């Protein structure tokens, strides 16, 4: 079966076409390629909302006279953190972790994980 679509192609190309509306291309580009990115992602908005809620809670706590309890709590947390971080074992583990992170970032940061084989030459025939 020999199908010849030349006559059909000529008939389709002979049809009169309407002109597209003015500004169609610009509106399509504005809606797709040139669309501005949102200022914040969903995760950032959730984090900002949580921080704002904590800030308002702290302000209300201080305004209602709970400031001394709040500062006492901060002092207790600070004393616990200073005791925990002044332990020689904790400092040794932090130093070992920092040294490992530095070592890995200096010596493996820009190397590829897998080296691609060299394919520019011909393989020897077997």
Largest beta-sheet details = none
**Runs with pLDDT <50, length 5+?**
none
Helicity range of the residues?
55-70%
- Return the structural class: mainly alpha
DSSP strand tally: 0
Estimate the mean pLDDT confidence: 83
Report the portion of residues in β strands.
under 5%
The number of helical runs is 5
Spatial gap, N to C terminus = 46 Å
What would the principal axes of the Cα set say about the shape?
Answer: elongated
Helix/strand order, N-terminal first: HHHHH
| Rg on CA atoms, Å | 34 Å
Oligomer: single chain
SSE inventory with pairings:
Blueprint: H1 6-14, H2 24-31, H3 42-63, H4 67-85, H5 88-108
Describe this structure in words.
There is one protein chain. 63% of the residues lie in helices and 0% in strands. It is mainly alpha-helical. The model has no long low-confidence stretch (mean pLDDT 83).
Provide key terms for this protein.
126 residues, mainly alpha, elongated, 5 helices
Short description:
With 126 residues, the chain is mostly helical.
